[in-house]
# Entry
Amino acid sequence: MTVTSPDTTAVGGRPVVPSRGALRPLGQDEVRITGGFWGARQDVNATATLPHARSWMDRLGWTGNFTATGPTVSVADRRGREFTDSEVYKLLEAMSWEVGRVPVGGAGNQTTVALETQIAELTKAIAAAQAPDGYLHTAFGRPGQPDRYSDMQWGHELYCTGHLLQAAVARARTGGGHEDPLLAVARRAADHVCDTFGPDATPGICGHPEIELGLVELARVTGEQRYLDQAALFVERRGHRTLPPHHFGWSYFSDDEPVRQSTVLHGHAVRALYLAAGAVDVAVETGDDELLRKVAAQFDRTLARRTYLTGGMGSRHTDEAFGDDFVLPADRAYSETCAGVAAIMLAWRLLLATGDGRYDEIVERILYNVVATAIGDDGRSFFYAHTLHQRTRTAALADDEEQLGFGGGPRAPWFEVSCCLPNAARLLAGLSCYLVTADDTGLRLHQYADSEISTCLTDGREVGLQVRTDYPDNGTVTVRVTKTDDRPWSITLRVPQWAAGAELVTTYGRRHVPAGDIVVYRTFAVGEEIRLELPMRPRFTAPDPRIDATRGCIAVERGPLVYCAEAVGEGADLDTLRVDGTVPPVDTEAGVAVRARFDARGRESWPYGPPEPDTPNASPTTSLDLVPYHRWARRGPSTMRVWLPTT
# Structure
């Protein structure tokens, strides 16, 4: 296992900087989103979501937990659940990526300066709460509190430390550098973890994976070998049922079978995805190609059998877990926002390691149909879970109303468990890092957004691109060369699997291109343009027949977007909806429309009886407008369904 040197190239901001792999990720100083679908959401994230999250954490005392120290502090003085420290760390990470996105001196400087002040303030409070030996958690170890590491199942101590390390890495990579105070806190905490849980110490694991991710990335930043060794040790310790039994089973804690023996992701969805992402990091840095292949195979099976149409993961509310193969009920879809973020983290790592463009597709699907769905238009409310069928109207919540619990329901300003908002916020703030990579011959565009790209190729040549697009409203993507020299290099564009009939337009003419990676390799001229035209026709999608819950239904997609039927207020009863699958969906001024009827037939006294023949003339057909799934529940209380029963 070798980390050869500190990551001195990572300044400029990249969440993941592997030392080897098929692709090199570009940082925030190399790729900037300049507008469009994601640019607008990044602006809302910066100006509304981050201050909203900070306000709630202050109000509820979560940030104050770090200053409530001293011999007179009792357990009653601490506020929130045992894992709330992690939410402050994720907020810090999101703030750091936002500072990297709009550095001091750039546009939006006032917001950036304010964030710098908050980062310094929170770092000072966190450093003051750290014990002399490096231990850091506000719910354990102080007078009147449980002992350190006395509840490895539920204590979340290592989980919180993992998020601390990721926040410190983000800070170091977006301006703080290797001398940043938060990085110093993180190093002391990581040293404590290694001393406490190393090969000759306590053989424990945390009930919630996350420390693995933080340790590997900290090793990449600092060059400290023991951090990587400890992450690898945690991965290997998983799955031996060392945690106490629980009614959810050992799979809930990712402790039922070793990572190398699993064939599919299972148990608590976020835990399983974080662990898989950490295992990929370990595999890449240690050269463990067998482990990499094992995790990739698990993810492939999960995508084929345990993933919703939206890319959402997790179909069980009780334990926030994956169901069995093809158990994907629409009206009980859990599909937590955090699971969507975690799945992107895993897919991105696998893409960088393997160069396999299939992972681009799942990243895109989750971005447009989970992440974009989660946050309210004003940035001050969010979904925790993402149902695909809302039978009862969502409720309208006041701006200061906290939603108890952490299951389904409307977008809420805050939840008792509010892991999802800062998780989505850190992804959105650093989203430009997921758009483009460099390979041996040039640049690869993975996600399409208005952006400016300026970087150096492997041989040191400076190249630049400008991307302009109205994606996903339409499928035209124009790439303009802004910087080049007189030697050839490549620009690789992605044609999604749904884009049959795509065309590529260059100075040499127009040609049809198949799904997959399209490589344009030659000597470019400044100002030269390449245009990719993706057909955005709406289309019906049918489920695998083994998914019992959606048999006899179809869904509608257009480009990367999943659509849904929505009834606002006292609108139509969507449970009586029947769609004519023989009439293709069409674009309209309102969006996408299908031919449908509402069949109100039903049984009143007993819901079962002899089969009734379908009578198409029982009720008239009409043109029904559908809306993008990411737009549902934004016009007021509503019902909704993605999977539409056919006539």
Q: What stands out?
A: The chain has a mean pLDDT of 93.
